[in-house]
Specification:
- The protein is mostly helical.
- It has a domain of 47 residues.
- 80% of the residues lie in helices and 0% in strands.
- The protein has two helices and no strands.
- The protein is elongated.
- It starts with 6 loop residues before the first helix and ends with a helix.
């Protein structure tokens, strides 16, 4: 029997999954392939799930957008 989840838990899990997926796809599609930086960010996002996604979106994405315009 599955445990009972309330609405807040399901909403939190959905938002977390969407944020994680967005960060991973953004990194894979838009991060330049110079050096190992792209690989490092993908590994960080995959291994640390939501924490890696938040770190990527707060630290790297604004820098990349300013630098490359993507």
């Amino acid at each position: 029997m599955w445990p009972s989840f309330d609405t807040f838990t399901l909403l939190f899990l959905a938002v977390t999954a969407i944020l994680w997926t967005f960060a991973l796809v953004d990194c894979l599609r838009n991060e330049p392939s110079e050096g190992n930086e792209k690989l490092v960010w993908v590994v960080v996002i995959l291994l640390t799930t939501i924490f890696g996604a938040v770190l990527y979106l707060l630290l790297r994405r604004p820098k990349r957008v300013a630098q490359y315009g993507q």
